[in-house]
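Run: sequence + flavin-adenine dinucleotide -> complex structure.
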Amino acid sequence: MKEKKSIMDRIAESNKSVTTGIDEKDIEFWVTIYIMGKAYKVPAGLTIMQAMEYAGYRFVRSAGCRAGFCGACATVYRKAGDYKLLTAMACQTRVEDGMFLVQIPFAPGNKAIYDINKEKYNVGVLLKHYPELARCVSCNTCTKACPQDLEVMDYIQEAIKGDFKAVAQESFDCIQCGLCAIRCPAELVQYHIAQLARRMYGRYGCQEPDHLKIRLKEIEKAKFKKAWDKLLKASIKEIEKLYAEREREPD
Amino acid sequence: MTEIKFIRGYPEYLRELIDIVNKTRMKRKDYEPPAMSKEEREEVLKLHPDYAPGGKRKISIGQNKGDIGPNEVVDLIEAYPLIEEEEIDLSKTDYNVDILIIGGGLAGTSAAIWANNQGIPPEKILLTNKLRHGDANSMMAEGGTQAADRPNDSPLMHFLDAMGGGHFTNKPDVLKALVEDAPLIMHWLLELGAMIDIEENGEFTEKWGGGTCRKRLHSCRDYTGLEELRVIRDEFRNRKIQCLEYYPAIELLKDGKGRVAGAVLWNFETGDYIIVKAKATILATGGFGRLHIRGFPTTNHYGATCDGVILAYRAGAKLRDVDTVQYHPTGAAYPQQIIGLLLTEKLRSMGAQPVNKDGEAFVFPLEPRDVEASSFIRECYIREKGVITPTGMRGVWLDTPLIELKNGEGTIENAFPGMHRMFTRFDIDMRKDPVLVFPTLHYQNGGVETDSEGRTNVEGLYVAGEISGGVHGKNRLMGNSTLDCMVFGRRSGIYAAEYVKRAKRNGKLLLEHMKKYVNMLKEAGIKPERRAPILLPEYRGKAVLARMIDIF
Ligand SMILES: Cc1cc2nc3c(=O)[nH]c(=O)nc-3n(C[C@H](O)[C@H](O)[C@H](O)COP(=O)(O)OP(=O)(O)OC[C@H]3O[C@@H](n4cnc5c(N)ncnc54)[C@H](O)[C@@H]3O)c2cc1C
Ligand code: SF4
Ligand code: SF4
Ligand code: FES
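>> structure
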């Protein structure tokens, strides 16, 4: 029987732990986790997300990219015998024996409404839209909660000063998971504040490159029109030839 | 036993295999296997999932009858709807809008903003999402976005590159729109305040993308899609455009004249449906990676299940090039937590070498993607020189420490911060140890056929983004799909807005087309075993599923 299987079938077979549900026959090592207090024996070495699926949870909420980019899978947990309340992305964190966990499917957060075209590039903008910034008590809880290891408190301090560039650079890897905001005693929504700062910096703190402006003018003035007319009339053969003749710019 | 013993991220037996790779590294540092000849390439490509026999079949019903597609896609085309006509009350509409947009990735969100720019008020636009607004493939683009905006480059060169990449099967007029709008999209992103990488001298940082003759890949560190989409989404929110989350579209609606006129949406949490009436509908539901074509893992997000293509097909829209699937050679194969996730090509262009279990470099690291992927499959399944992971998967090593050896210490942390962070989370130090890779399902090349304005052949129905077919032909180049989303998101938004201003649209809502489709299925002898769209993949454990009973 075995020899008859095609290579594609064998590949599909070997991938099945991630493409279909996990079969307990294939598992050697187990851990026990507590999902919202209920104990489940799950295969060791899975992410929290995969382990919950193994246990029978089918996600509608709390699962998006499954790769650490979208911030949908915020999770709060404690380890047995440890006083610390820990935070993680369920798709990027391995289960550990004795984890007590719950997912946070939604973080209510106030977002300011503004027109980026009408804002002035001055230090007061962030405080104007988010006056609660002033309430930060520098407790550093946000930084400890951040699964991206960002220095959240630092960028909030920069935000109070109105330093768009510093906030923009320090907050750049934020995936807007909301974990900082739900832990903050001053009730700040750090990720929305950072979003505004980044847009201000991107819009007003950086110059549009000249070469882009020139290209836009050229297109507006239909500089390439003749060449387009010719190219679009060309046969596939001719296009293939042009393609083969392209010169690659040096590295 | 409860825990596997890991030594710096790897179980003991893999540690022993890593030692073999470590031993041959210095020898391999200045050696690279030669690129394959044309004949060798043709031979190895027979192992590629897109060419290996058995993966595809003919579509047996509808406007593309006779065309071939991957079995997993044809299965869904040849599947019954989720609803029956009788159970849906079409007399009461919950939303009456000018434009309904289905799917809020880069394409759908851009469409909403540009429709609004065109004068459609925010309360006359509705964007609906299956998951949260932004849980999408768009968020995950690391590499960048192409635009020909440097003096030594031109939209025509961009056009030629994409044509060659697509094996000359692209729709030329649609591709022209893509490349010619690209600089405008860059300008738009800057205006919105996106942080695109810029050099000290004020010019864009532009990198190589595979298959291009110019450096024109714009990036936002290694979080390009994240930056683009979160900025565009923030702008969308500032405009107070109506938005629904966890409300997937499960069927399109038509009017008496055969025009698309809205959709049935389903509340994913409470299970009830709502009816949206719209003068124009834009489908922007993205790709199909979660169908795990040929059993491959995928780079795609949780909701990439081909829904939009199925709904459009039932409504009479033509498809094209759905038969070609893009696989990326270097998906992660270990650890289990990240199987399938993308490890960018740039690793290899900076010196990382694919290596087999005996520590041999077996392939030129920068063959075209399909050749490179096939050679990994050959190494693992024909030559039996792959490494078997703890989950039974096979893979080859990607010797990342070579990057540091060739370019100096610290290169990995500087050039690949996101990826380095990902492996570090699982205690793997890719600067010191190689990582395991295997090809992964990456991109839907074809889809619903469009013209340069985002229109389909069905009046009132537009598509934009990965769901569409034509612009990339049979193979997309890196950096052209985020661009595609923004260019055709914008275009579909603008042209749909113009259309709704012109068109007198106030007919009755009907599900006649769905009924006809069901009849076609019956006539073709297809049994009602499968239903589509599937909305989400099924990953629950086998043991639990076997004991599940439906009582509440
Ligand atoms: C890991 C990765 C890396 C990539 N890197 C690059 C790169 O460097 N450069 C590049 O140009 N491209 C890249 N791509 C490709 C590119 O990101 C995508 O093709 C593109 O962003 C798709 O955008 P979209 O708007 O069409 O779809 P998506 O961004 O996937 O958005 C579609 C949305 O529609 C929703 N949806 C689906 N079905 C329904 C339904 N029935 N009802 C309502 N909503 C629905 C989805 O949940 C999702 O939110 C990459 C892709 C991946 C996965
Ligand atoms: S800054 Fe806050 S929202 Fe952003 S990633 Fe960190 S914890 Fe999440
Ligand atoms: S958690 Fe809140 S109060 Fe504490 S440092 Fe962070 S922003 Fe300030
Ligand atoms: S699911 Fe997107 S970050 Fe975890």
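>> summary
Chain A has a mean pLDDT of 94. The beta strands of chain A are 30-35, 38-43, 74-79, 86-89, 99-103.
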